[in-house]
Design goal:
This protein is an alpha/beta fold. The protein contains 16 helices and 15 strands. The strands form five sheets. Strands 2-5-1-6-7-8-9 form a seven-stranded parallel β-sheet, sandwiched between helices. Strands 3-4 form a two-stranded antiparallel ribbon. Strands 10-11 form a two-stranded antiparallel ribbon. The protein is globular and about 70 Å long.
Length: about 525
Protein backbone atom coordinates (compact mmCIF):
# COMPACT_ATOMS: atom_id res chain seq x y z
CA UNK A 1 0.00 0.00 0.00
CA UNK A 2 1.41 3.41 -0.99
CA UNK A 3 2.15 6.19 1.49
CA UNK A 4 -0.35 8.42 -0.33
CA UNK A 5 -3.16 5.90 0.17
CA UNK A 6 -2.21 5.55 3.84
CA UNK A 7 -2.53 9.33 4.30
CA UNK A 8 -5.97 9.36 2.67
CA UNK A 9 -7.18 6.54 4.92
CA UNK A 10 -5.87 8.33 8.02
CA UNK A 11 -7.73 11.52 7.05
CA UNK A 12 -10.93 9.56 6.41
CA UNK A 13 -10.67 7.85 9.78
CA UNK A 14 -10.07 11.20 11.49
CA UNK A 15 -13.10 12.70 9.76
CA UNK A 16 -15.34 9.75 10.63
CA UNK A 17 -14.15 9.78 14.24
CA UNK A 18 -14.72 13.54 14.58
CA UNK A 19 -18.12 13.25 12.91
CA UNK A 20 -19.18 10.54 15.31
CA UNK A 21 -18.06 12.59 18.29
CA UNK A 22 -19.66 15.78 17.04
CA UNK A 23 -22.95 14.12 16.06
CA UNK A 24 -23.13 12.67 19.54
CA UNK A 25 -22.39 16.14 20.91
CA UNK A 26 -25.13 17.70 18.79
CA UNK A 27 -27.70 15.32 20.26
CA UNK A 28 -27.30 16.93 23.63
CA UNK A 29 -26.55 20.51 22.53
CA UNK A 30 -29.57 22.80 22.77
CA UNK A 31 -30.99 24.64 19.79
CA UNK A 32 -30.03 27.88 21.53
CA UNK A 33 -26.40 26.72 21.72
CA UNK A 34 -26.34 25.74 18.05
CA UNK A 35 -27.65 29.19 17.10
CA UNK A 36 -24.94 30.77 19.26
CA UNK A 37 -22.29 28.75 17.44
CA UNK A 38 -23.50 29.94 14.04
CA UNK A 39 -24.59 33.51 14.80
CA UNK A 40 -21.93 35.11 12.60
CA UNK A 41 -23.52 33.37 9.57
CA UNK A 42 -27.01 34.60 10.50
CA UNK A 43 -29.07 37.44 9.09
CA UNK A 44 -29.72 40.75 10.87
CA UNK A 45 -33.44 40.75 10.04
CA UNK A 46 -34.49 37.13 10.42
CA UNK A 47 -32.04 36.20 13.19
CA UNK A 48 -31.89 39.60 14.90
CA UNK A 49 -28.12 39.57 15.20
CA UNK A 50 -25.15 41.21 13.52
CA UNK A 51 -24.40 38.15 11.40
CA UNK A 52 -23.28 38.66 7.80
CA UNK A 53 -26.17 36.73 6.16
CA UNK A 54 -23.97 33.92 4.81
CA UNK A 55 -26.69 31.30 5.23
CA UNK A 56 -29.14 33.51 3.34
CA UNK A 57 -26.59 34.00 0.54
CA UNK A 58 -26.21 30.27 0.01
CA UNK A 59 -29.96 29.63 0.19
CA UNK A 60 -31.11 32.46 -2.09
CA UNK A 61 -28.29 33.83 -4.24
CA UNK A 62 -25.88 30.96 -4.84
CA UNK A 63 -28.18 27.93 -4.71
CA UNK A 64 -28.15 27.44 -8.49
CA UNK A 65 -24.77 28.96 -9.28
CA UNK A 66 -21.32 27.44 -9.59
CA UNK A 67 -18.15 29.19 -8.49
CA UNK A 68 -15.66 29.92 -11.24
CA UNK A 69 -12.37 29.54 -9.34
CA UNK A 70 -10.77 28.63 -6.05
CA UNK A 71 -9.46 31.55 -4.04
CA UNK A 72 -6.11 31.06 -2.31
CA UNK A 73 -6.14 32.64 1.15
CA UNK A 74 -2.84 32.99 2.97
CA UNK A 75 -3.35 32.87 6.73
CA UNK A 76 -0.33 34.69 8.13
CA UNK A 77 -0.58 33.55 11.72
CA UNK A 78 0.73 31.17 14.38
CA UNK A 79 0.15 28.07 12.25
CA UNK A 80 -2.78 25.97 11.02
CA UNK A 81 -3.69 22.37 11.82
CA UNK A 82 -3.99 21.33 8.18
CA UNK A 83 -5.49 17.89 8.88
CA UNK A 84 -8.37 19.16 11.04
CA UNK A 85 -11.50 17.29 9.82
CA UNK A 86 -13.36 20.56 9.18
CA UNK A 87 -10.48 21.89 7.05
CA UNK A 88 -9.83 18.78 4.95
CA UNK A 89 -10.29 19.69 1.29
CA UNK A 90 -9.75 23.39 1.93
CA UNK A 91 -5.94 23.41 2.29
CA UNK A 92 -3.68 24.81 -0.43
CA UNK A 93 -1.20 22.41 -2.00
CA UNK A 94 1.86 23.49 -3.93
CA UNK A 95 1.55 21.16 -6.92
CA UNK A 96 4.94 22.26 -8.27
CA UNK A 97 6.70 20.71 -5.28
CA UNK A 98 7.28 16.96 -4.74
CA UNK A 99 6.52 16.20 -1.07
CA UNK A 100 9.33 15.36 1.33
CA UNK A 101 12.12 14.80 -1.20
CA UNK A 102 14.37 17.46 0.33
CA UNK A 103 14.58 19.33 -2.99
CA UNK A 104 13.32 22.78 -3.92
CA UNK A 105 11.51 21.45 -7.00
CA UNK A 106 9.82 24.73 -7.96
CA UNK A 107 12.99 26.70 -7.19
CA UNK A 108 11.14 29.31 -5.12
CA UNK A 109 13.77 29.18 -2.37
CA UNK A 110 11.73 26.99 0.02
CA UNK A 111 12.25 23.24 0.22
CA UNK A 112 9.15 21.00 0.40
CA UNK A 113 6.75 23.91 0.97
CA UNK A 114 3.68 21.81 0.19
CA UNK A 115 1.03 23.70 2.20
CA UNK A 116 2.83 26.93 3.06
CA UNK A 117 5.89 27.90 5.08
CA UNK A 118 7.12 28.53 8.63
CA UNK A 119 9.35 31.60 9.01
CA UNK A 120 9.31 31.53 12.80
CA UNK A 121 12.39 29.46 13.59
CA UNK A 122 15.60 29.61 15.59
CA UNK A 123 18.12 27.86 13.36
CA UNK A 124 15.62 25.24 12.10
CA UNK A 125 13.62 24.77 15.31
CA UNK A 126 10.08 26.15 15.43
CA UNK A 127 9.57 28.98 17.92
CA UNK A 128 6.34 29.59 19.85
CA UNK A 129 7.03 32.49 22.23
CA UNK A 130 8.68 35.83 21.45
CA UNK A 131 9.31 39.15 23.19
CA UNK A 132 7.01 42.09 22.70
CA UNK A 133 8.50 44.44 20.10
CA UNK A 134 8.89 47.05 22.84
CA UNK A 135 11.00 44.59 24.85
CA UNK A 136 13.21 43.87 21.84
CA UNK A 137 13.82 47.59 21.28
CA UNK A 138 14.71 48.16 24.93
CA UNK A 139 17.07 45.17 24.85
CA UNK A 140 18.78 46.63 21.77
CA UNK A 141 19.09 49.91 23.71
CA UNK A 142 20.57 48.04 26.67
CA UNK A 143 23.10 46.37 24.34
CA UNK A 144 23.94 49.65 22.52
CA UNK A 145 22.54 48.34 19.22
CA UNK A 146 20.06 51.13 18.37
CA UNK A 147 22.22 52.73 15.66
CA UNK A 148 23.21 49.34 14.26
CA UNK A 149 19.54 48.38 13.82
CA UNK A 150 18.36 51.80 12.67
CA UNK A 151 16.01 52.38 15.61
CA UNK A 152 14.86 55.96 16.06
CA UNK A 153 14.65 57.94 19.31
CA UNK A 154 10.88 58.16 18.84
CA UNK A 155 10.58 54.37 18.57
CA UNK A 156 12.57 53.99 21.80
CA UNK A 157 10.25 56.44 23.55
CA UNK A 158 7.13 54.61 22.31
CA UNK A 159 8.65 51.26 23.27
CA UNK A 160 9.34 52.46 26.82
CA UNK A 161 5.76 53.70 27.19
CA UNK A 162 4.31 50.41 25.92
CA UNK A 163 6.66 48.35 28.11
CA UNK A 164 5.92 50.33 31.28
CA UNK A 165 2.16 50.22 30.66
CA UNK A 166 2.22 46.45 30.02
CA UNK A 167 4.17 45.80 33.19
CA UNK A 168 1.89 48.06 35.21
CA UNK A 169 -1.25 46.33 33.94
CA UNK A 170 0.28 42.91 34.46
CA UNK A 171 0.44 43.17 38.22
CA UNK A 172 2.64 40.59 39.85
CA UNK A 173 0.14 40.07 42.68
CA UNK A 174 -2.61 39.22 40.17
CA UNK A 175 -0.20 36.93 38.33
CA UNK A 176 0.56 35.02 41.52
CA UNK A 177 -3.13 34.87 42.51
CA UNK A 178 -4.06 33.32 39.18
CA UNK A 179 -1.47 30.60 39.61
CA UNK A 180 -2.67 29.95 43.14
CA UNK A 181 -6.26 29.57 41.91
CA UNK A 182 -5.10 27.26 39.14
CA UNK A 183 -3.18 25.09 41.61
CA UNK A 184 -6.28 24.79 43.83
CA UNK A 185 -8.53 23.78 40.93
CA UNK A 186 -5.86 21.32 39.79
CA UNK A 187 -5.75 19.80 43.28
CA UNK A 188 -9.56 19.70 43.63
CA UNK A 189 -10.19 18.00 40.28
CA UNK A 190 -6.96 16.07 39.76
CA UNK A 191 -6.81 17.54 36.25
CA UNK A 192 -4.75 20.24 34.57
CA UNK A 193 -7.37 20.75 31.84
CA UNK A 194 -10.31 20.90 34.28
CA UNK A 195 -13.77 22.09 33.27
CA UNK A 196 -16.52 23.89 35.18
CA UNK A 197 -18.24 20.52 35.55
CA UNK A 198 -15.08 19.01 37.11
CA UNK A 199 -14.90 21.84 39.65
CA UNK A 200 -18.61 21.54 40.42
CA UNK A 201 -18.35 17.78 41.03
CA UNK A 202 -15.27 18.03 43.26
CA UNK A 203 -15.50 17.92 47.07
CA UNK A 204 -14.04 21.00 48.80
CA UNK A 205 -11.97 20.24 51.89
CA UNK A 206 -11.22 23.78 53.06
CA UNK A 207 -13.23 27.00 53.16
CA UNK A 208 -10.85 28.37 50.53
CA UNK A 209 -11.71 25.53 48.16
CA UNK A 210 -15.42 26.02 48.82
CA UNK A 211 -15.07 29.73 48.00
CA UNK A 212 -13.25 28.99 44.73
CA UNK A 213 -15.86 26.37 43.82
CA UNK A 214 -18.58 29.00 44.23
CA UNK A 215 -16.47 31.50 42.28
CA UNK A 216 -16.26 29.07 39.36
CA UNK A 217 -20.06 28.68 39.42
CA UNK A 218 -20.48 32.47 39.23
CA UNK A 219 -18.02 32.74 36.35
CA UNK A 220 -19.86 30.00 34.46
CA UNK A 221 -23.25 31.65 35.14
CA UNK A 222 -21.88 34.90 33.74
CA UNK A 223 -21.33 33.07 30.44
CA UNK A 224 -17.55 32.90 30.62
CA UNK A 225 -15.54 29.96 29.35
CA UNK A 226 -13.08 28.05 31.56
CA UNK A 227 -10.73 27.99 28.57
CA UNK A 228 -10.53 31.80 28.84
CA UNK A 229 -9.18 31.42 32.38
CA UNK A 230 -6.52 28.99 31.19
CA UNK A 231 -5.69 31.33 28.29
CA UNK A 232 -5.28 34.19 30.78
CA UNK A 233 -3.02 31.97 32.86
CA UNK A 234 -0.87 31.19 29.83
CA UNK A 235 -0.82 34.88 28.92
CA UNK A 236 0.42 35.90 32.38
CA UNK A 237 3.08 33.21 32.49
CA UNK A 238 4.41 34.01 29.03
CA UNK A 239 4.29 37.76 29.61
CA UNK A 240 6.34 37.66 32.78
CA UNK A 241 8.77 34.94 31.77
CA UNK A 242 9.32 35.80 28.10
CA UNK A 243 7.50 38.72 26.47
CA UNK A 244 8.61 41.35 29.01
CA UNK A 245 11.91 39.67 29.86
CA UNK A 246 14.79 41.84 28.60
CA UNK A 247 17.20 38.92 28.91
CA UNK A 248 15.11 36.50 26.80
CA UNK A 249 16.14 36.28 23.13
CA UNK A 250 14.15 33.68 21.21
CA UNK A 251 15.98 33.89 17.89
CA UNK A 252 19.58 35.08 18.02
CA UNK A 253 20.24 33.37 14.67
CA UNK A 254 17.81 35.55 12.67
CA UNK A 255 19.76 37.64 10.14
CA UNK A 256 18.40 40.98 8.92
CA UNK A 257 17.67 40.98 5.19
CA UNK A 258 17.51 37.19 4.84
CA UNK A 259 14.46 35.90 2.94
CA UNK A 260 15.12 32.21 2.66
CA UNK A 261 14.99 30.63 6.11
CA UNK A 262 12.54 28.45 8.03
CA UNK A 263 10.93 25.05 7.47
CA UNK A 264 7.64 23.43 6.46
CA UNK A 265 6.20 23.10 9.98
CA UNK A 266 2.83 24.57 8.96
CA UNK A 267 1.22 24.01 12.35
CA UNK A 268 4.00 24.76 14.81
CA UNK A 269 3.75 24.31 18.58
CA UNK A 270 0.93 26.80 19.18
CA UNK A 271 -1.66 26.75 16.37
CA UNK A 272 -4.83 27.61 18.33
CA UNK A 273 -5.15 31.11 16.90
CA UNK A 274 -4.31 30.32 13.28
CA UNK A 275 -6.49 27.21 13.17
CA UNK A 276 -9.42 29.17 14.62
CA UNK A 277 -8.95 31.86 11.96
CA UNK A 278 -8.75 29.24 9.18
CA UNK A 279 -11.98 27.59 10.37
CA UNK A 280 -13.93 30.85 10.23
CA UNK A 281 -12.90 31.20 6.58
CA UNK A 282 -12.95 27.58 5.46
CA UNK A 283 -14.71 25.32 7.99
CA UNK A 284 -16.81 22.66 6.21
CA UNK A 285 -20.42 23.83 5.93
CA UNK A 286 -21.83 20.50 4.79
CA UNK A 287 -20.61 17.80 7.19
CA UNK A 288 -22.88 18.72 10.13
CA UNK A 289 -19.99 18.85 12.57
CA UNK A 290 -18.15 21.66 14.31
CA UNK A 291 -18.39 25.04 12.64
CA UNK A 292 -19.59 26.41 9.32
CA UNK A 293 -16.97 28.56 7.65
CA UNK A 294 -17.92 31.42 5.38
CA UNK A 295 -16.43 30.01 2.17
CA UNK A 296 -15.36 26.36 2.57
CA UNK A 297 -16.05 25.17 -0.98
CA UNK A 298 -14.28 28.02 -2.74
CA UNK A 299 -11.08 28.62 -0.75
CA UNK A 300 -7.70 27.00 -0.26
CA UNK A 301 -5.87 27.93 2.95
CA UNK A 302 -2.13 28.56 2.73
CA UNK A 303 -0.48 28.45 6.16
CA UNK A 304 2.26 31.07 6.55
CA UNK A 305 3.62 30.91 10.08
CA UNK A 306 5.01 34.23 11.35
CA UNK A 307 3.00 35.11 14.49
CA UNK A 308 4.24 34.01 17.94
CA UNK A 309 2.77 34.32 21.39
CA UNK A 310 4.23 37.79 21.69
CA UNK A 311 4.94 40.29 18.89
CA UNK A 312 5.72 39.24 15.35
CA UNK A 313 9.02 40.32 13.79
CA UNK A 314 8.92 42.67 10.81
CA UNK A 315 11.30 40.41 8.84
CA UNK A 316 8.91 37.47 9.20
CA UNK A 317 5.82 39.50 8.28
CA UNK A 318 7.48 41.01 5.20
CA UNK A 319 8.79 37.63 4.08
CA UNK A 320 5.44 35.99 4.78
CA UNK A 321 3.59 38.53 2.63
CA UNK A 322 6.06 38.12 -0.25
CA UNK A 323 5.90 34.31 0.02
CA UNK A 324 2.10 34.41 -0.14
CA UNK A 325 2.06 36.72 -3.17
CA UNK A 326 4.75 34.78 -5.05
CA UNK A 327 2.89 31.52 -4.53
CA UNK A 328 -0.48 32.71 -5.81
CA UNK A 329 -2.40 34.02 -2.79
CA UNK A 330 -5.39 36.17 -3.76
CA UNK A 331 -6.18 37.29 -0.20
CA UNK A 332 -3.98 37.60 2.89
CA UNK A 333 -5.51 37.34 6.37
CA UNK A 334 -3.46 39.32 8.90
CA UNK A 335 -4.92 38.80 12.39
CA UNK A 336 -2.04 40.30 14.35
CA UNK A 337 -0.57 43.65 15.29
CA UNK A 338 1.62 45.66 17.65
CA UNK A 339 2.06 49.20 18.90
CA UNK A 340 5.60 49.91 17.70
CA UNK A 341 7.54 48.76 14.64
CA UNK A 342 11.13 49.92 14.14
CA UNK A 343 11.54 48.15 10.78
CA UNK A 344 8.14 49.20 9.41
CA UNK A 345 9.49 50.12 5.95
CA UNK A 346 10.34 46.46 5.38
CA UNK A 347 6.67 45.60 5.91
CA UNK A 348 5.41 48.62 3.97
CA UNK A 349 7.46 47.54 0.95
CA UNK A 350 5.99 44.02 1.18
CA UNK A 351 2.47 45.40 1.47
CA UNK A 352 3.05 47.56 -1.62
CA UNK A 353 4.36 44.45 -3.41
CA UNK A 354 1.08 42.67 -2.60
CA UNK A 355 -1.04 45.64 -3.68
CA UNK A 356 0.86 45.80 -6.98
CA UNK A 357 -0.03 42.15 -7.59
CA UNK A 358 -3.81 42.60 -7.10
CA UNK A 359 -3.87 40.96 -3.66
CA UNK A 360 -6.44 41.90 -1.00
CA UNK A 361 -4.90 42.37 2.47
CA UNK A 362 -7.25 42.24 5.47
CA UNK A 363 -5.88 43.29 8.86
CA UNK A 364 -7.31 43.23 12.40
CA UNK A 365 -7.73 46.62 14.10
CA UNK A 366 -6.51 45.39 17.51
CA UNK A 367 -8.03 44.75 20.92
CA UNK A 368 -7.07 47.70 23.12
CA UNK A 369 -10.32 49.74 22.90
CA UNK A 370 -8.32 52.60 21.40
CA UNK A 371 -8.82 55.13 18.62
CA UNK A 372 -6.13 54.07 16.15
CA UNK A 373 -6.45 57.36 14.32
CA UNK A 374 -4.59 58.63 17.38
CA UNK A 375 -2.70 55.58 18.71
CA UNK A 376 -0.89 53.89 15.82
CA UNK A 377 -1.01 50.12 15.39
CA UNK A 378 1.12 48.09 12.96
CA UNK A 379 1.04 46.92 10.25
CA UNK A 380 -1.05 49.55 8.49
CA UNK A 381 -1.26 51.37 5.16
CA UNK A 382 -0.41 54.84 6.47
CA UNK A 383 2.28 55.14 3.81
CA UNK A 384 -0.40 55.17 1.08
CA UNK A 385 -1.79 58.58 0.08
CA UNK A 386 -4.94 57.35 -1.72
CA UNK A 387 -6.14 54.84 0.87
CA UNK A 388 -9.64 54.60 -0.63
CA UNK A 389 -8.37 53.13 -3.89
CA UNK A 390 -6.11 50.52 -2.41
CA UNK A 391 -6.85 46.90 -1.48
CA UNK A 392 -5.97 47.08 2.23
CA UNK A 393 -8.73 46.72 4.85
CA UNK A 394 -8.67 47.13 8.64
CA UNK A 395 -11.43 45.43 10.63
CA UNK A 396 -13.18 46.12 13.95
CA UNK A 397 -15.21 43.60 15.99
CA UNK A 398 -18.95 43.31 16.66
CA UNK A 399 -20.99 41.36 19.19
CA UNK A 400 -24.22 39.60 18.17
CA UNK A 401 -26.54 42.08 19.92
CA UNK A 402 -27.96 44.89 17.77
CA UNK A 403 -28.43 47.46 20.52
CA UNK A 404 -26.10 50.17 21.83
CA UNK A 405 -23.74 47.43 23.15
CA UNK A 406 -23.11 45.97 19.70
CA UNK A 407 -19.40 46.87 19.60
CA UNK A 408 -17.05 44.44 21.33
CA UNK A 409 -15.74 46.17 24.45
CA UNK A 410 -12.14 45.51 23.41
CA UNK A 411 -12.24 46.54 19.75
CA UNK A 412 -10.11 49.35 18.39
CA UNK A 413 -11.82 51.91 16.17
CA UNK A 414 -10.97 54.93 14.04
CA UNK A 415 -12.94 57.11 11.64
CA UNK A 416 -10.12 57.03 9.08
CA UNK A 417 -8.10 53.97 10.17
CA UNK A 418 -10.76 51.24 10.56
CA UNK A 419 -12.71 50.41 7.41
CA UNK A 420 -15.61 48.26 8.54
CA UNK A 421 -16.92 46.18 11.46
CA UNK A 422 -17.71 42.45 11.40
CA UNK A 423 -18.61 39.67 13.88
CA UNK A 424 -15.73 39.09 16.29
CA UNK A 425 -17.20 38.08 19.66
CA UNK A 426 -17.83 34.49 20.79
CA UNK A 427 -17.02 33.02 17.39
CA UNK A 428 -17.07 29.22 17.30
CA UNK A 429 -14.39 27.64 15.15
CA UNK A 430 -11.73 24.99 14.74
CA UNK A 431 -8.81 24.48 17.14
CA UNK A 432 -5.96 21.91 17.19
CA UNK A 433 -6.45 18.25 18.08
CA UNK A 434 -9.65 18.26 16.00
CA UNK A 435 -11.49 20.42 18.55
CA UNK A 436 -13.58 23.61 18.53
CA UNK A 437 -13.74 26.68 20.76
CA UNK A 438 -15.37 30.08 21.13
CA UNK A 439 -12.86 32.92 20.73
CA UNK A 440 -13.22 36.69 20.61
CA UNK A 441 -11.13 39.44 19.04
CA UNK A 442 -10.67 41.57 15.96
CA UNK A 443 -8.59 38.54 14.96
CA UNK A 444 -11.90 36.69 14.54
CA UNK A 445 -13.66 39.57 12.74
CA UNK A 446 -10.91 39.72 10.12
CA UNK A 447 -11.41 36.18 8.71
CA UNK A 448 -15.17 36.82 8.53
CA UNK A 449 -14.40 39.64 6.10
CA UNK A 450 -11.84 37.48 4.29
CA UNK A 451 -14.41 34.70 3.89
CA UNK A 452 -16.97 37.05 2.36
CA UNK A 453 -14.33 38.56 0.06
CA UNK A 454 -13.28 35.08 -1.08
CA UNK A 455 -16.91 34.13 -1.72
CA UNK A 456 -17.40 37.19 -3.94
CA UNK A 457 -14.15 36.65 -5.85
CA UNK A 458 -14.81 32.94 -6.44
CA UNK A 459 -18.10 33.71 -8.21
CA UNK A 460 -16.99 36.95 -9.87
CA UNK A 461 -13.29 36.43 -10.71
CA UNK A 462 -13.19 39.30 -13.22
CA UNK A 463 -13.27 41.79 -10.31
CA UNK A 464 -10.07 43.35 -8.99
CA UNK A 465 -8.92 43.43 -5.37
CA UNK A 466 -9.73 47.15 -5.20
CA UNK A 467 -13.24 46.43 -6.51
CA UNK A 468 -13.72 43.70 -3.91
CA UNK A 469 -12.85 46.21 -1.19
CA UNK A 470 -15.20 48.76 -2.73
CA UNK A 471 -18.05 46.24 -2.73
CA UNK A 472 -17.48 45.28 0.91
CA UNK A 473 -17.44 48.92 1.96
CA UNK A 474 -20.32 50.25 -0.12
CA UNK A 475 -22.63 47.29 0.54
CA UNK A 476 -22.22 47.56 4.32
CA UNK A 477 -25.36 47.99 6.39
CA UNK A 478 -25.38 51.74 7.02
CA UNK A 479 -25.35 52.59 10.74
CA UNK A 480 -23.78 56.07 10.55
CA UNK A 481 -26.52 57.71 12.64
CA UNK A 482 -26.86 54.90 15.19
CA UNK A 483 -25.61 55.70 18.69
CA UNK A 484 -23.49 53.00 20.32
CA UNK A 485 -21.28 52.71 23.37
CA UNK A 486 -17.69 53.67 22.74
CA UNK A 487 -15.50 50.57 23.31
CA UNK A 488 -14.16 50.45 26.86
CA UNK A 489 -16.21 53.49 27.94
CA UNK A 490 -19.75 54.40 29.02
CA UNK A 491 -20.23 57.30 26.63
CA UNK A 492 -22.21 57.02 23.40
CA UNK A 493 -20.97 57.90 19.94
CA UNK A 494 -22.36 57.84 16.40
CA UNK A 495 -21.32 54.68 14.54
CA UNK A 496 -20.25 56.89 11.65
CA UNK A 497 -17.44 58.26 13.82
CA UNK A 498 -15.92 54.80 14.34
CA UNK A 499 -14.97 53.65 10.84
CA UNK A 500 -14.69 54.74 7.22
CA UNK A 501 -17.76 52.89 5.93
CA UNK A 502 -19.94 53.78 8.92
CA UNK A 503 -21.42 50.30 8.69
CA UNK A 504 -21.19 46.57 9.24
CA UNK A 505 -20.34 43.79 6.82
CA UNK A 506 -23.15 42.03 4.95
CA UNK A 507 -22.47 39.22 2.48
CA UNK A 508 -25.94 39.29 0.94
CA UNK A 509 -25.78 42.93 -0.06
CA UNK A 510 -22.17 42.44 -1.18
CA UNK A 511 -23.04 39.57 -3.54
CA UNK A 512 -25.93 41.57 -5.02
CA UNK A 513 -23.55 44.48 -5.68
CA UNK A 514 -20.87 42.17 -7.08
CA UNK A 515 -23.37 40.73 -9.56
CA UNK A 516 -24.08 44.22 -10.90
CA UNK A 517 -20.48 45.40 -10.87
CA UNK A 518 -19.13 42.31 -12.63
CA UNK A 519 -21.35 43.07 -15.63
Amino acid sequence: MSMKLNSVIVLLLLSINAMAQSNEENKIVSKKELIKRDWFNGDPKTDKSNGVSTNKVYAELLANKKSEKKIIVAVIDAGVEIDHPDLVGAIWTNTKEIPNNGIDDDKNGYVDDIHGWNFMVNADTSVAIENYEATRILRYKKNNELELRGISTNDVKTAQEIYDKAKSELKETEYKNLFFIDSVYHKMTGKSDYTFADIKQSTPITYGELYLQKLAAKIEKAGENIADFRDALKHYRNAWDYQLNLDYEARPTLKKGDRYYGNNDYEGPYADHGTHVAGIIAGNRNNNIGTRGIAHDVVLIMSVRTVPDGDERDEDVANGIRYAVDNGANIINMSFGKGVSFDKKLVYDAIQYALDHDVLLVHSAGNDAEDIDVVTTYPNCDFIVDRKNTSFLTIGALKSVTNKKMLAEFTNYGKTSVDIFAPGYDIYSTTPDYKYEFKSGTSMATPVVVGVAALIWAYYPNLTAVQIKQILMESAIDLKTKKVLLPGKKEKILFGELCVSGGILNAYQAIVMAEKMSK
